[in-house]
Amino acid sequence: LILYFLYKNVTFLFSGVGDDTRAWGPPFVGTESIYFLSVNRNKKSIAVNMKNPKGAKIIRELAAVSDVFVENYVPGKLAEMGLGYEDINKIAPHIVYCSITGYGQTGPAFQRAGYDSVAAAVSGLMHITGPEDGDPVRPGVAMTDLATGLYTYGAIMAGLLQRYKTGKGLHIDCNLLSSQVACLTHIAANYLNCKMEAKRWGTAHGSIVPYQAFKTKDGYLVVGAGNDQQFVTVCKILNLLEVSKDSRYKTNKLRVQNRKELIEILSARFSEKMTTKWLELFEGSGVPYGPINSMQQVFSDPQVSSHGAFLGTALIFPLELVGLIVLSPAQPVVSNKVNRLYFAPVLLFSESHLNEFLMLE
After folding, report:
1. What CATH number was assigned to the domain covering residues 48-194?
2. Which one of the listed residues 145, 173, 228, 246 is annotated catalytic?
3. For 221-241, how does the pLDDT look when each residue is reduced to its tens digit (9 = 90+)?
4. I need a labelling partner for 320 at 20 to 30 A (CA). Which of 6, 79, 163, 281 fits?
5. Catalytic: 133?
């Protein structure tokens, strides 16, 4: 999705009936999966029978005039069809060839298929996600997929820069497992250096107190005091200045040690007021804070809408046969300008799709 805003020409090659996400739902718009539409906008779609030599030839011809080649097959599968990195490099030495897999190109598990949740489990993300006294939990969205996509995007940009300098392409290996392990950051460092096994903290943070969600009279508010001065400010807002002077809570290290008692005190005070009242009190304080929002609240938030994240920023685009669809943006703002051009993925076997269809039997 992000590459589209740089190149304006992203082609999705598939075989058979297309991307599995076409069948993922509900919800659907007509017969089309919202999930599919959300991740495949702005891509041209061409169906090719890659097992047919003529189909493989078409892909090689496309590669010869492309900048980037991205594939997510089990390692070795494309090489069997004459479409591996070595094959493409012979005809397009300039190309940045990127392989996205579940487990990478080497190692005992390299030929396993991979999905987001499986990689989240194997990488330890699920182990550290969920309530403190509960079971492991899958993150609400496919964080491992998203992280891998962003790592891949960065690697592709670096690859294109190298090509600009040297004229030569390269092979990038991105995989779900390595991407998610990289995202463990300090959690991984804690174990590797101190053999400190990670645990689940719910909405709390293992090394910063207070930094978590607090239940209000009608919802939840997340507050983070990343330093001692912010903690004093939180106590002032809660009218608990005496707590900030308590020797047990003077430093973050002490607050972590005495987490249970402190959180009980703060939780009792947060429960006394409505979320909107706490938002008013924290406004302008310099302390990071925010409510836990539903989707309705997210897309009603004026700050969210100011960044072009919903209807009104041309995120509506025509979808053949089923009308209009609204999707959130997939790119950062560059030079204070939001790219407002979106187009929908074509419907499978639709008339406009057939104009580009390259099915070879």
Report:
1. 3.40.50.10540
2. 145
3. 999 999 999 999 999 999 999
4. 6
5. no
